[in-house]
Specification:
Elements lengths: L15 H13 L28 E5 L3 H13 L3 E5 L2 H10 L4 E5 L7 H9 L9 E5 L4 H9 L4 E4 L4 H11 L9 H19 L4 H15 L2 H10 L3 H17 L3 H15 L5 H21 L16 H16 L3 H13 L6 H12 L3 H16 L9
Parallel strand pairs: 1-2, 1-3, 3-4, 4-5
Helix pairs in contact: 3-4, 7-12, 8-12, 9-10, 9-12, 10-11, 11-12, 13-14, 13-16, 14-15, 15-16
């Protein structure tokens, strides 16, 4: 660059804030303003993250992916639970969805700059005391005044110094009680999430049990799959898995696990998910699966028969009653099908009933009904015997 007489280098894609900072730096070389000397790439300095930052929940907002990654890496080294946003609007949406301990906010962003984001945060009374620190490459006095006037606590100068970051956050969050690890949050929430699940399904225990069994069926191996996809750096597949899990966990009223999946999804979309994020998501999901398994109860069988030998005619009649209900998505049909499947366990016909139930649970009613018609034909076959082996 020296031979070409260039003052610097911009890496594509060039964001608005990077371009703004580059122009500012270029103009300041010819101005009378005092410019702080660059630290350059001198000898590396050791830094020690304070233990008080472990498990804190911090949002990093910056439209530059590299800046987000650097801040995220520093914070995760300190054991922080990091959420990232690439715009002001996304940051405000995330604040509505979760509890956070602090926000690191880039000042120069397109559409909505950091000053406007800070003002909107402060306009909400529930965030009146939320620590907000500006991330900026500007060192002018008027910039500092604008940052403070917007409601932020202060600024951290780019490039970020890890030890300054840690010390600043340690002081800003010193008044808060110690943070609990994410796994503890899951355990603490388990006593409350039963009410949340019941609320989603209006207290219908049969529907709740179907949901729990379907979750175990679909995601029993997902914790291992998360680690495998992360090791392979298959960001697209891992993002899709995290997105799917996030939606399913919402029905189970597991906000901590949902947030872990959301953080993992966003990181994968940026093609940079740390091992700590993948490990956190996997651990959270394992805890949820264990809790779901504890809540499962055997399906009721009282409506079909009370004897150990099921009546073929009664089973067939139950299947015929279930078919139109399954076809139109009525949960009553699922309940009848569960009873048939339970009574046929150990029987040669059980596979058909189990297949029909799985298809119905996967919202494939036509395929489920086709399978049930095959089951009726099997009932009528001369060799049919539904008696358990």
């Amino acid at each position: 660059m020296a031979q070409l007489q260039l003052q610097g280098l911009l890496i594509k894609p060039v964001t608005e804030s990077v371009l703004f900072n580059a122009i500012q730096d270029s103009l300041q070389l010819h101005s009378s303003h005092h410019v702080l000397p660059s630290k350059g790439l001198g000898k590396a300095t050791a830094f020690t993250p304070p233990a008080s930052l472990r498990h804190r929940r911090i949002l990093v907002v910056d439209d530059n992916a590299l800046n987000r990654e650097v801040a995220q890496d520093f914070l995760e080294l300190a054991g922080v639970q990091v959420t990232t946003a690439s715009s002001g609007r996304e940051a405000l949406a995330l604040l509505e969805q979760r509890d956070l301990d602090a926000v690191l906010l880039d000042v120069q962003m397109p559409e909505m700059d950091g000053l406007e984001v800070a003002r909107r945060i402060r306009s909400n009374s529930q965030w009146a005391q939320l620590p907000i620190w500006a991330l900026t490459a500007q060192a002018r006095q008027e910039d500092r005044q604008a940052i403070l006037a917007s409601g932020m606590h202060g600024q951290l100068t780019k490039p970020i110094d890890a030890q300054v970051l840690y010390d600043t956050l340690d002081q800003a969050l010193a008044h808060l009680p110690p943070a609990l690890p994410a796994s503890t949050s899951v355990q603490a929430a388990q006593s409350a999430n039963s009410a949340g699940i019941a609320r989603h399904f209006a207290g219908h225990q049969d529907r709740i049990q179907r949901l729990l069994r379907a979750f175990i069926r679909d995601f029993a191996h997902a914790p291992t799959h998360i680690q495998e996809l992360h090791a392979a750096q298959d960001w697209k597949a891992l993002s899709l898995l995290a997105h799917t899990l996030k939606g399913s966990l919402g029905y189970l009223d597991q906000p901590a696990a949902m947030h872990a999946m959301e953080n993992l999804e966003w990181a994968c979309l940026q093609e940079h998910a740390s091992s700590a994020l993948a490990e956190s998501a996997s651990t959270q999901l394992q805890a949820v699966l264990a809790h779901v398994a504890q809540r499962l109860t055997p399906p009721s069988t009282s409506s079909v028969a009370h004897s150990t030998t099921p009546d073929t005619a009664l089973l067939q009649a139950t299947v015929q009653q279930a078919i139109p209900l399954i076809r139109r998505g009525d949960y009553a049909g699922m309940q009848l099908l569960e009873q048939v499947e339970s009574h046929l366990r150990g029987s040669p016909l059980h596979g058909l009933a189990a297949r029909a139930l799985a298809l119905a649970e996967d919202l494939e009613p036509d395929a489920a009904c086709t399978c049930l018609h095959t089951l009726i034909e099997a009932f009528n076959a001369p060799s049919a015997d539904p008696t358990p082996l």
